[in-house]
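Hey, quick one: can you model this chain's 3D structure?
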Amino acid sequence: MLRYVLRRIAYAVPILVGVSLLTFFLFYAVYTPEQMARKNLSTKNPTPAQIEEWVKEHGYDKSRSEQFSKHMKELLLLRFGKSDATKQDIWERIRAGVGPSSYIASLIFVCSIITSISLALVAAYFRGTYLDLWITFLCVLMMSIVYMVYIIAGQYVFGKILKLSPLGGWRGGLDAARFVILPMIIGVIYGLGSTVRLYRTFMLDEMNQDYVRTARAKGIGERGVLLRHVLKNAAIPILTSSVAVIPSLLLGSLLLEQFFGIPGLGSLTVDAINSQDFAVVRAMVFLGTVLYIVGLILTDISYALVDPRVRLE
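Sure thing. Here's the predicted structure for all 313 residues.
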């Protein structure tokens, strides 16, 4: 297992370099250093001399190859430098935003997994009945609604009419719970449609296997078959589908944080894109890639814990 993990880490290096290279050239394809200088300089109409000074100060006057090699070296050493817009240390901004982002995203992740698996088990248990039909219909309906509708409707119903939660903002400590409830509910509801349908399919596939028929032949009830056999064997594809959300546990949700005014890493990324802050964008893309690769490795390790066949291999 150790050799496998080390091999996966070695494979991750060219992926990191490739993603960073793509981000580097895509950003330059959209914005030139002069455009970034005009956006980030405090003066309304900067002179050519001021623009040239800003470009030299941030190292954008060098060749593309020199810039990329320097940036890549700094990223691999986790030295992100300072923001192009605010000149604030990027690590300080990341440390300030990782708390709210991970708090909200972790709650959404845990609640979504519990709710989705529970509803998928109900749909699988009552397969072919009207209850299964209605759950499937509601899942398709929820998948057809865009994220923005959930956010706006949630703010209007729960925040403005029922006044169960503030419409936006953030406070640390125990007061954070008041500001987390509404974004968490919206995040869970938005993901239910796709995850319940997916988990239901996984469980129905397992229910057609030979070991399930053998368990039924031994006299085990349908509930015992679902909880003791089907759920355990369906855990592997569920783990695979869950890995995509692992980066969001730290990087946060772009739309949720923007609409609710949460000072997390999602808001930091959106603000950096709007202000053409390439230093912050580069750092956040790199972190997202690292977290996604770590998630893939953790998923492979979890396979061995769930499936004995993986341990034997």
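One thing worth noting: The mean pLDDT is 82.
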